[in-house]
Amino acid sequence: MLNGRPAVVAAPAADCSLLDALREVLGVRSVKDGCSPQGQCGCCTVLVDGAPRVACVTPLRRVADRKITTLEGLAPDLLERWARAFADHGASQCGFCSPGIVLRLAALADRPRPPTERDVRSALLAHLCRCTGWQGVVDAARAVLGIAPGSGEAAPPAAGRDPLRSAWRAELEGGTPQLTGVGAVLGRGGFADDRAPPGALVAVRSASGDYLVAPDRGAARRAVGKVQGRNSTVGVRHPVAVPEGDWALTLRTTWVEPAYLEPDASWSIDGRRAASPLAAGGAFGGKRSSPVAPEARRLAASLGRPVRVLWSREDVGRWGPKRPPVAMAVAADGHGVVRVGASPGGADLGALAERLAAVEPRFRLEQVPVVGPPVSAELRGVGWVEPAVLGAAWRVWRQGTVGAGVPVDVRAPGGGRARVAVRGDGGVEVEVWAGEVLDEVVLRSYCTGAVHQALGWVWSEGVAVDDDGEVLDLTIRSLGILNALEMPEVELTVHRSDGWPRNGSDAVFAATAAAAWAAEGLPPTWPTRR
């Protein structure tokens, strides 16, 4: 029974998963594939006889004669309450993870005792959200489940919000046009694979880099011999050496995965146009040069058939661009060096010199060849965030105020500004100046998400790479992303202005990284807690 109606599926293979049956056979698009078949991101969560379960690791044969509920099967009034609460509290941005999260949280109401905030955060351990930093999700759950609000919770807007102004602020922060509001919460943001034409052939990438085409996704993955990724036990490397010199501060980072949850996807009908992999959300710059759209055009043109090109989570890990590793140093007088690791096959990093000059003109840039995965200059703030962090930390060091609770100020090249302090109790205080606010809910959501990413970058995130430059961490959980229990409370102040709207969350990202580093005592390597 699917959402109260009988559903009959002739499984195309003995190992067919519930996820493949729902998406590929029955056309249920609210159920998303973020890591299949790793069972680690929670985007494919459904209810089986009322209990949450990730569909990608649930064999179809195990759910015969059982009741399956997807987002579409929730009672309309209940679904409206959850969707509205998520929209009002900024609990959804791209919306890829939202349907699964809503289903799991809605199931909390069926427990014998009233749920608590701890129950909410514990339930969220089965999920990953890269966009919002969890706080809006918890606030939305409090509102629907009747849990007392926390001290850091922002009240939803008293009056109606303008969808055009919301979309404008989302585009400023995310770098690409995207849907906001209830539609995004319901997973209807326009993800590329959700809009693929029925009956299209499916192309997946082999280990050699070629694309193999088959009638459906399951057949394509079986033919290519897809191997499920594993967590490695190998520690991260810091491949770029600090230059010799008498330095006041030094910092080395490793490769970092942007970790967007929707794997790269595109499709083409006629070989002339292809669906954008950036159709919903900016992927933090990670998909700007994705090869899936040109591959979809090429294959559709050569085969004379519509073709879907799909990357798996392991493909994103192996071939998706990473934040380049750096080694930076600053002298007592404020002069410094920023060395950036450039790997074979990575993007040209020549644009970084101009970005560096915009924030720290007394630093010089050096590119250093390294063996590793491809890197990109298009990821969030690459080229200016790293030197901005070092420059801000140097000013804190010069004042002799290194430690928890010290406010750190950063102004982004685009004009946004942020001041952040990471307190001794772990809480984070944020102030942001982003010109005309347009939509405070959207701005708050992006800024809280920026705090989440920055803390993860400093504390725990990284990608293990072997001697040959091959990525070893091929699961979404192996990347060190902070979960809902690890994320501290964020107290955010938005300063209103009549000035032209500017991106504010990138400045928050840089200022949070610098403040977290200062709170840790400015150790010479990141991640500091891994």
Beta percentage is 5-15%
Number of strands: 15
Give the fraction of residues assigned to helices. Answer: 25-40%
Main structural class: alpha+beta
Question: What overall geometry do the principal axes of the alpha carbons give?
Answer: globular
Rg estimate, integer Å: 23 Å
Per DSSP, the total helix count is 14
Name the poorly predicted regions: none
Alpha-carbon distance between the two ends: 45 Å
Sheet with most strands: strand arrangement? 5-4-8-7
Q: Biggest sheet: strands, sense, closure?
A: 4 strands, mixed
Would you tell me the overall average pLDDT?
95
- List SSEs in N-to-C order: HEEEHHHHHHEEHEEHEHEEHEHEEEHEH
Task: Outline the structure in words.
There is one protein chain. With 530 residues, this protein is of the alpha+beta class. It contains 14 helices and 15 strands. The strands form 4 sheets. A 4-stranded mixed β-sheet has the order 5-4-8-7, sandwiched between helices. Helix 6 runs parallel beside helix 13 and helix 13 runs parallel beside helix 14. The protein is globular. It starts with 17 loop residues before the first helix and ends in an 11-residue tail after the last helix. 55% of the residues are buried. The mean pLDDT is 95.
